[in-house]
Amino acid sequence: MKLTFLGAAREVTGSCYLLELDNKHYLIDCGMEQGPDLYENEQIPVEDIKNIDGIFVTHAHIDHSGNLPTMVKHNYNNPIYMTNATKALCEIMLYDSAKIQEFEAEWRNRKATRGSEIPYEPLYTSEDVARTLPLIVGCNYHEDVVINDNLTVTFIDAGHLLGSSSIKFTMTVQGVTRTIVFSGDIGNKNKPILRNPEFYDSSDYVVMESTYGDRLNNVEVDYSRDLANIIEFTFNKGGNVVIPAFAVGRMQELLFALRKVKTDNMVKNYPNFKVYVDSPLAVEATKIFSMDWNDSFDEETKTLIKQGINPIAFDGLELSMTAEESKMINFIEEPKVILSASGMCEAGRIRHHLKHNLWRPESTIVFVGYQVNGTLGSKILNGDKKVKLFGENVSVKADIVKLQGTSSHADREDLLDWISHYKSPLERVFVTHGDDKVSEDFANLLCDKNYNALAPYNGEEWDLAKNIKLQDGNTIKLTRGVRKKNKKVENINIMVDRAVQKLESIAEEIKEGANEDKRKFITAINRIIDKFKRN
After folding, report:
1. Interior CA angle at 102 toward 88 and 61, to 5°?
2. 33, 192, 331, 444: which has the fewest Cβ within 10 Å?
3. What angle do the packed helices 412-420 and 436-448 form, to 10 degrees?
């Protein structure tokens, strides 16, 4: 009964944990990293990916689900468990992620000098996503899902994103039963559209996030009124309001607030202003959010739906799907609101809108979500005077605003409230999914409150039957700006494996041929061996 930390340990993204029960292996989350690595990441310590028996996903955000197709590409073919709403969102988000991978590979290969670089291969493709989706098993909240005689899991609402969950595992190995809860991302209370987070009241172990473990969200704000003030201020100068936002979750919250701005006529001098949602993924996600998810929506949203009102639609809302529609937005002279992804400005159409608006003093860039250190969004928000976009330096002269009270993560007090609902003593709390210092400080805060807590390192292993550490993690920080195992290295390794497979196939064909061909083949292989062998 062993737990290994493989992602989001003292880092905010790339959530991934390995749970081993006898000869069974399970992953909890399989997320993609965003931003630079702080510590070396361990690879999944399983000899063959197809020997992983199941994957459980807390929610659809790419830093929790984004590597699912990578697993399938490497022959994973077992069930992937998540809530029904998460399943609906993953179907669109993973295809979007694949398109980004494919586009990046095409762009890199087009720029590479002929013959001077190894061709760049996408991490995965749309075909890999198509093979992933049939493996997904949708689950209901509060329903015990029996995986086998030794394992039962239960999902409850984490209140972070449509379909988000905290997952409880009840495990029995050799007559010993233990429980562990993976919090997933815990939502902020009293947010638009979604219910507040639910709680478990008992477990032996808890793995909990700490993204906002060093700050408070208790600023009383009127989300719609603040947006209206920013819009009117910017429009009076003749500028645009550009809002980088996560396509799934945050974008729909913004539309909920903007609907109120419109229906209550909060921007009186510009009642007919246009709002452009420039993200095909956001458009598809908005369709999913418009469905009746009764087990996830809060009372206000359910009331609007019962009245026949779409809570995230209004007059003046323009949805941009094609590249041509996206380009035309920046040729429209009248002041407007532009919502585009990605939320951290690392990819997507938002980068084009920033290029057209960052240098304009009359425009306003509004940040409404967490910005991981090192991302373009964090650089702009932290005051960089110039940033690089599409290989060019762009001056930052627009107003830069951080809208308060918009986080979808629980703050320090709400995290403490979440953990306080456990009535029986916890054997240990593992604090993850936070920046290095934040996760450690929050673990220390829990210790001060008499919890047995720590912030594990990547690669750290624990025996859950005995509550003892089996192996230390990677405690040495990487050189700043260096990633020892990046996507390119992983892609090259994949290509090496494929080359070996092709060589083996050719060898089998040669065996059936003439002796002269066999001798030539042996000579050629020996030359390669002599060239690359290491003494």
Report:
1. 35
2. 331
3. 50
| 3-state percent helix, strand, coil for the chain, nearest multiple of 5 | 35, 20, 45
DSSP conformation letters of 521-533:
HHHHHHHHHHHH-
Which pLDDT does position 113 carry in this prediction?
55
DSSP-derived pairing of the beta strands 205-209 and 428-432: parallel
Q: What pLDDT digit, counting tens, does each position of 377-434 carry?
A: 999 999 999 999 988 999 999 999 998 777 889 999 999 999 999 998 999 999 999 9
| Residue 92 to residue 289: CA distance in whole angstroms | 12
pLDDT band at 498 (very low <50, low <70, confident <90, very high): low
| Cβ atoms 267, 231 nearer than 8 A | yes
Helix 280-289 to helix 84-111 angle (10° resolution) is 180
Can you read off the two tokens belonging to residue 250?
Answer: 């945050």
H, E, C per residue of 282-311: HHHHHHHHCCCCCCCECHHHHHHHHCCCCC
Contact status, residue 421 vs residue 186, Cβ threshold 8 Å = no
11: amino acid identity, one letter? E
Q: Which residues pair with 7 in a beta bridge?
A: 16
Q: Yes or no: say if 182 and 405 are a contact pair by the CB < 8 Å rule.
A: no
| Strand order through the sheet with 337-340 | 317-320, 275-278, 337-340, 241-244, 364-367, 399-402
pLDDT above 70: residue 52: yes
- Name the residue with higher pLDDT: 171 or 487: 171
b/e burial code for range 295-320 (CB count within 10 A of at least 16 → b): ebbeeebbebbeeeeebbebeebebb
Concatenating the DSSP letter of every residue in 352-418 gives HHHHHHTT-TT-EEEE-S---TTSHHHHHHTT-SEEEETTEEEE--SEEEE-TT--SS-BHHHHHHH
Name which of 310, 301, 316 is nearest 265 in CA terms: 316
Give the CA distances from residue 321 to residues 91, 127, 225, 254, 283, in Å, rounded to whole numbers and listed in that order.
17, 22, 29, 18, 8
Taking alpha carbons only, the member of 229, 235, 224, 254 closest to residue 363 is: 235
For 521, other C-beta atoms within 10 Å of its C-beta total: 17
Mean per-residue pLDDT, 49-53: 93
Least confident of 15-29, 42-56, 83-97, 443-457: 42-56
